[in-house]
Specification:
- Helices cover 11% and strands 43% of the residues.
- It is mostly beta strands.
- The chain folds into three domains: 23-125, Immunoglobulin-like; 154-263 and 366-496, no CATH class; 273-355, no CATH class.
- Strands 11-12-13-31-30-32-28-29 form an eight-stranded antiparallel sheet, with helices on one face.
- The protein is elongated.
- Residues 11-19 and 192-198 have low confidence and may be disordered.
Length: 498
């Protein structure tokens, strides 16, 4: 009898509590903008339960609040004017409430339930990186897409990951553009206008260079002057195109198809028959005071120099002629052009008919490749032995390269010898091409961080800005800042190994 009375009292007490309990009510949805995150808060009037899931194939977070109701002032749809989170939408269900939060990309988030007061907090990181694969261009050549989200906006990067056992990589020069029918007709009507047959170097779109070389993919290469002349070391199939500037960082492919990143200098000289040594100060570049420049057939048909110097025309290792300037460059040889004090003594030490012994030694600062087949100069270095190391001051880069955000191109090497090439979209130069989703570009320091995150053990910067271009299989992968492909002096091309 006593147990029965106690049971009745307990039941009465339970129902009295239930009758007096407050219903669970969602009273407010708030957005907070913190320095490193966006915070969405669901404020309740009392303790609540919840569960959550991600909508498959969509960037949506679904949170269910069983036995909860929406307060009278709650909107069923709340828009958030941010570049990360789009909106929160409430739906009433038989068992309670269902909240759906829509967000951009794959933004990381964290959910925490708090008390006093009762609330659910969803924190979305304001800065994060998403890396996704877009599949293979060919076997051994994978495409990756990277989205960096910052407090100021987004940065889009396009990556090629290269297996050197399956893919060949090499620099290639832009070739002379074939004249159109209209250009040919104009040249016939204006024969006095002259031609550019003596022009040294050219500029062409990366896609055009790739197609000329039979490549499946390509990216812009070294820095260059307005005329198209490469600036810094460029070696193609063991033929020296241009010489180093300030010992800047370069990308090398050795004779045994291994990749290196190192600073480069040249030990370049020639010996006369009497073993007099002359130090060559530059290759395929304009002459300045007190210089000795080597001109090869890659420079053009003529040296284009003034007559205030002395030039040795060398064919098959023999001095064929000595003259003042603007010499023809033999296809089976080269021209050595002197100006300044050294030119006064050339006739005393060198005679027509004598042999010359030309030496061009490539000297990497820290690596020891087994012969060198290709070199592409760039700089500055970005990653050195796994650590960020931006050498923009040591390599004497000006502010237009070293500072601020810009479109960028970079190349790196992983510890297992794979190659990584990145093209970073910059801010479009024309206002009409810009929108809230336009890429911001990167600083060199941010570029170094990206290359290390991708796995680069060593990495370096290449030419950027309007030159930054990545192309694969008839498709432009990046968005150039000009809105179109700009002409470049040279490109790094990728082909399947035969």
């Amino acid at each position: 009898m006593k147990k029965t009375i106690l049971l009745i009292i307990a039941v009465i007490y339970f129902f009295s509590l239930s009758a007096g309990a407050k219903p669970i009510t969602l009273e407010k949805i708030r957005l907070g903008k913190l320095s490193n995150k966006l915070r969405i808060t669901f404020d309740f009037n009392s303790r609540f339960d919840y569960s959550f899931s991600s909508a498959e194939g969509e960037n949506k977070l679904v949170i269910t609040f069983p036995n909860a109701a929406a307060g009278s002032k709650i909107e069923t749809y709340t828009a958030f004017n941010t570049n990360l989170v789009n909106y929160a939408e409430l739906e009433r269900e038989d068992s309670g409430l269902r909240a759906t939060i829509s967000f951009e990309d794959k933004v990381p988030y964290k959910i925490v339930q708090l008390i006093s007061p009762d609330r659910l907090v969803v924190d979305f990181d304001r800065e994060y990186t998403n890396i996704s694969s877009s599949g293979n261009v060919i076997d051994g050549l994978e495409r990756l897409e990277v989205v960096n989200v910052t407090k100021n906006g987004k940065i889009y990067s396009h990556i090629l990951k290269i297996d050197l056992s399956k893919v060949d990589i090499a620099p290639a020069l832009a070739k002379k553009k074939k004249p159109s029918v209209l250009e040919s007709f104009i040249s016939i009507l204006n024969p006095w206008k002259g031609s550019d047959t003596a022009k040294s170097f050219y500029r062409a779109r990366v896609s055009a260079i790739a197609e000329d070389e039979g490549a499946v993919a390509a990216v812009n290469g070294s820095f260059f002057s307005y005329s198209g002349r490469p600036l810094g070391t460029l070696l193609i199939d063991k033929e020296m195109v241009s010489s180093p500037i300030y010992g800047r960082t370069a990308f090398l492919i050795s004779d045994d198809q291994k990749a290196y990143i190192d600073n480069i200098t040249l030990d370049c000289y020639f010996l006369t028959i009497n073993q007099v040594c002359y130090k060559i100060t530059g290759i395929n570049q304009s002459r300045d005071n007190n210089s000795i420049i080597l001109y090869t057939p890659l420079w053009g048909k003529k040296t284009g120099t003034a007559t205030n110097g002395i030039e040795l025309i060398v064919s098959k290792g023999i001095v064929k002629e000595i003259k003042a300037g603007n010499s023809n460059i033999p296809q089976d040889g080269y021209v050595i052009s002197f100006i300044g004090t050294e030119s006064q003594f050339v006739s005393d030490n060198i005679k027509v008919g004598e042999p010359l012994d030309l030496k061009i030694n490539i000297v990497p600062f820290a690596t020891s490749p087994n012969g060198v087949t290709h070199i592409v100069s760039g700089g500055p270095r970005l990653v050195k032995q796994g650590s960020i190391y931006v050498s923009k001051h040591e390599e004497r880069f000006k502010a237009d390269v070293g500072s601020a955000r810009a479109a960028r191109t970079a190349i790196g090497i992983t510890r297992d010898g794979s190659i990584l090439i990145a093209a970073v979209d910059g801010r479009p130069r024309k206002k009409k091409l810009r929108n809230d989703n336009s890429s911001l570009g990167m600083t060199l320091e941010e570029l170094a961080g990206l290359m290390r995150k991708l796995g680069a053990y060593d990495a370096m910067n290449l030419d950027g800005g309007s030159s930054s271009t990545m192309w694969a299989k008839d498709k432009l992968l990046n968005i150039p800042v000009t809105g179109y492909e700009a002409g470049v002096s040279n490109a790094i091309v990728l082909r399947p190994k035969i």
